[in-house]
Every structure is written in structure tokens, then in C-alpha cells.
Amino acid sequence: MTTNAPSRVHRDTQETLAVLERLDLDTEKPTEEELARKFGYEDDYFKGTVSWWQHMKPQIWSLFDEPYSSNAAKIIGVISVFFICVSILSFCLKTHPDMRVPVLRNITVRTANGSAAWVLDKTQTNAHVAFFYIECVCNAWFTLEILVRFISSPHKCEFITSSVNIIDYIATLSFFVDLILQRFASHLENADILEFFSIIRIMRLFKLTRHSSGLKILIQTFRASAKELTLLVFFLVLGIVIFASLVYYAERIQANPHNDFNSIPLGLWWALVTMTTVGYGDMAPKTYIGMFVGALCALAGVLTIALPVPVIVSNFAMYYSHTQARAKLPKKRRRVLPVEQLRAPRVAGQPPGMPGSGPMARRMNQPKTKDLGPKIDVTTTIIGKTGGKMAHLL
User: Fold this and answer.
1) Tell me: the pLDDT tens digits for 332-359?
2) Sequence-ordered list of residues with C-beta below 8 angstroms from that of 25, at least 6 positions apart, any chain
3) Fewest Cβ atoms nearer than 10 Å: which of 66, 186, 198, 323?
């Protein structure tokens, strides 16, 4: 068990570092060869026949998708964040009563003597016209950003299937759909329900993950803790159903003229609020048996929520500590080799079939002609920073 412990720690650490590689948290500028390999013109790069579009495409992509690649990219990122905040703020403020304008309508009514009269109706309100122009400017920027990023993206399929990009172009498309509905379906009854679909614009906040590595780590933490979150939801649903049924029948055992639990579905709402320790107080048991069931429900909710939370917190701490330690290393030493590629040096007299022999081992063990300076024990340094959960880095 002692022998397998280091290898298990190395494998776990390599999986964590592989996840961090996919998150693309590096802020250093890649080389020309790396850009050529990423955008698929590596052959033209070695031949020296790179076209002007192949040269401009990575620069445009880095401007709009990598906010920390240059000063110009930082300016584009600030503009993007500004329009996101303005769009969300406009979407929220236009629902305030003081920000809405009443719609005046003349309605014909019949008086008591049978004659017709005009009544001015202003119960219906619309958002101020200024919000329309603000949304037009914001969505013009979002449309331009989507088109530029799509044209300059290195992988079109990955761009289309990305969850953040899906939210982005659905939210932008909802603005144009809303304009069409206001133009052709405003006369229909309950047309305000159609505005509910514009709530997808709030999801633009997830675009901020491109500008914050902490949000990327947080989302990855929820992905890594999917089993614990599923287990938490399962036990919550199980407890809600059990305690909703118990409190429904407990309140009917004794005489209770002010019974709030007229059905089990109402008890489901009470059990959900109680187990999540919210406690609105809109529904409460009145009998002693119901109070006892409520106490059990509250205790079960505290235990159910408290048990999986440390696992989620430990996952976040692990990713965050690895990210901080990895950021302090030079970029060339952040690459991780699998454990299977590490070989021991060949011992004199050892058969060729044993580990440490063969062409690959000879190439790995031959002395380097170029002096790279003093070697750095990266493993020891990073293990001290992350609690002993790092593998061999090159």
C-alpha cells in the first residue's frame, strides 16, 4: 500500500493538471509555431508561405477571445464587460415602475342613460424608449463580437458547441426575435408572456468566465463534484417527500382549525423551505406532532446539506492551489509527462528487454550538448506549495 501511494498521488495530480491545461488559464503569449499548430497552417509556416489572413487570424482571435494576451485585447475585454453590464442593467431597470411610460388608450363605455362616453385608459405601460436604443447598441456589439470570433476561431465546431457561445448567440438572437414579436404580435392577448424568453439575456453573465480564471475554476469544481451534487439533490428530494407526507397526516390527527397543510403538494413546499434552512414562515405546523415532524425535518436538512459540502470545498481548494502553484512556474516547465514515459537509466550489463533499454531510453539518457543551467527540482517546490499533490513537471 505504501508503494502504490506515490503513484496514485501522481496520477491524481496529473489528472488535475490536465484539467487545468484544458481550462486554458495561461496568460503568456504563445510562439509563432504554437499559433501555426493551433490554427492549422503548420506546413505553410515551415515552408514560409504564410498568407496575410493566416497571419492576421490568430491576432484577431487573441484580441476578442484572450483578454490578457495584449493591451489591445485588454481594452476589447473591458469594452465587452462594459456592454454586458449595461445590457443586464438595462434589462433589470426597464421593469421598474418609474422607468415605464403609460400607454394611453381611449375606450368607449356606456353610461347609465344609455349614451356613449370616452374613457382614458392608462393601465398598460411600456418601457421607456431609451432602453430600446441602449439594447440596440449593446446587441450590435454582441453581434459583431460573435461574427468576428466565429470567423477567426481555429475550430468552428468547438466554437459552435461551446456552452458559453450557445448562451451568447441565443441571447443575441432573442433580441431580434423580440423585435419581430413586438412588430407583428403586440396586438395578441397575453403578449407579455413572450417577453419571458428574453430572460436568456441574463445568462450573458457566464461570458465573464473568459475574463476571470476564478470563475473557470468554480465551474470546473461543480463539474468535478457532479456526483456529490447529484447525491445531495437525491437525498433532499427523498427527505422532502417523506416529511411532506408526515406533516400532512400529523396535522390531521388532532383538531386543527388553522391547518396550513391541506394537501401533500403544499407540504412539499414547506419541506423544501425547511430542509434548506430558509424558513419563510408562510406555513407552519400547529399541533405538537406536526412540530415534532418539523424539528426532525430541520435536523435532517442540516445534516443532508452539511455532509457533501466539504467534498465540494476540498475540490475547489485543490484546483485553486494547483492553479496558484502552476502560475508561478515558467510556461515551458508546466507540461506534464505521463507516468508511463518516465524510465529509469539503464544499468551496465542489463538485458536489452529490461526497462531503461532501447532506442527511446538511449535518447532520454544521452547527455545534452547544450548547458541549460542549474536544474530546478520543480516537484519538490510545488509539492511544498500544494500539500504534496503534484507530479513531475518539465
Assistant:
1) 555 555 544 444 455 555 554 444 444 4
2) 213, 216, 323, 326, 327
3) 186
pLDDT at 237 over 80: yes
Instruction: Give CA separation, 183 vs 134, 169, 187, 355, in Å.
Output: 18, 21, 9, 75
CB-facing half-sphere around the CA of 344: CA atoms within 13 A: 6
Write the Ramachandran bin of 26: left for phi over 0, alpha for psi from -120 to 50, otherwise beta: beta
For 4, 194, 329, 386, the CA distances from 383, given in Å and listed in that order, are 18, 55, 13, 5
Kindly report, residue by residue over 260-284, the tens digit of the pLDDT. Answer: 888 899 999 999 999 998 888 888 9
- Look at the alpha carbons of 94, 96, 97, 98 in this order and tell me if their dihedral is positive or negative: negative
pLDDT tens digit sequence for 187-219: 555 555 666 667 777 888 877 777 777 777 888
CB atoms within 10 A of CB 250: 22
Q: How far is CA 288 from CA 80, 247, 251, 258, 285, in A?
A: 58, 11, 9, 14, 8
Which residue did the predictor score with more confidence, 214 or 226?
Answer: 226
Q: Is 128 left (phi over 0), alpha (psi -120 to 50) or beta?
A: beta
Q: Which of 293, 282, 300 is nearest to 254 (CA)?
A: 293
Cell of 356: 531503461
Contact 36, 45 (CB under 8 A): yes
Name the phi and psi angles at 235, rounded to 5. Answer: -70, -35
Structure confidence at residue 362 (pLDDT): 42
Count helices and strands in the chain by DSSP H and E runs = 15, 4
Helix (H) or strand (E) holding 228: helix 226-253
